[in-house]
Automatic annotation (TrEMBL):
Protein name listed in UniProt: Acetyl esterase/lipase
Presence of keyword Hydrolase: yes
Source species of the chain: Kibdelosporangium aridum
Keywords of the record: Hydrolase
Residue intervals of the BD-FAE-like domain: 17-215
GO molecular function annotation: hydrolase activity
Signal peptide start and end residues: none
Keyword rRNA-binding listed: no
Length: 255
């Protein structure tokens, strides 16, 4: 594993596959946009996936409330551009890149994928503005899809999962309006692999299903996998079967 700075104060880890021609996927960690870092899932998720033939680049982004939307998206797009500019010199196959996120990271990664060319979300973090921030495949694991809908909790749900996660993400002056991935689904979207547990009590599986249906109705490619008896961030997502399936899909999508 090697660490590099892709912008001032922002770092990424590269977990290489054995084959230097292996496809590359950028990993965006979860944690409600306010917790976690690029090393959180290294031993249990990222290193094992690299062993299945996909190089994993785990990226840090500034956490809320220190950063508010869209800074996190600007930073992740900066990481994509940095990889395109520097990957070849590091021996990485960066002609086609995937992005993979879990929970809050899945929302961010999917937003990166569905906003190519959106001037409001591109930003200039890290420079390399001559490089594209587009990605060619997306793995979305149990992530939020429509922040306004997910924030509309019952009183009991709000006690279990306070609204402050979304509030911190957009800031005191921000709005959740327009932060739905569904409105960005189009035929030009890259292919998606969406996975969710049927016992998720944090993000309902209906959110992932809604994204899957929105993509397919728009004419994009999407595959939906429902993991039986799995909850949010369930160990089943790190099982050899799930990681092998995910790696195989990424290798095919990024071929």
């Amino acid at each position: 594993m090697s660490e590099f700075s892709y912008a001032p104060g922002l770092y990424l880890d590269i977990h290489p596959a054995d084959d230097p021609s292996a496809p590359v996927v950028i990993y965006v960690h979860g944690g409600g946009w306010s917790h976690g870092d690029k090393g959180t899932d290294g031993p249990t998720r990222l290193v094992p996936l690299a062993a299945y033939g996909v190089t994993v680049v785990s990226v840090d982004y500034t956490l809320a409330p220190q950063a508010v939307y869209p800074q996190q998206v600007h930073e992740l797009k900066g990481a994509v551009r940095w990889l395109r500019a520097n990957g070849s010199s590091l021996g990485l196959n960066v002609d086609r890149l995937g992005i993979w996120g879990a929970s809050a990271g899945a929302y961010l990664g999917s937003l990166v994928a569905l906003s190519s060319g959106d001037s409001a979300l591109e930003g200039t973090v890290g420079g390399n503005v001559d490089q594209s921030s587009a990605v060619q495949a997306v793995v979305h694991w149990f992530g939020q899809v429509d922040l306004a809908a997910s924030a509309a909790r019952t009183e009991l749900e709000a006690r279990l999962l306070p609204f402050h996660f979304e509030a911190d993400f957009v800031g005191d002056d921000g709005s959740l309006d327009g932060l739905s991935l569904l409105s960005r689904a189009s035929a030009s979207a890259p292919p998606f692999l969406i996975a969710h547990g049927d016992r998720d009590r944090i993000v309902p599986m209906t959110e992932s299903l809604a994204l899957h249906y929105a993509l397919t109705r728009a004419g994009a490619r999407s595959r939906f996998e429902l993991l039986g008896s799995a909850g949010h961030e369930d160990p089943e997502f790190n099982s050899p079967a799930t990681l092998a399936t995910t790696a195989a899909w990424l290798r095919a999508a990024l071929d």
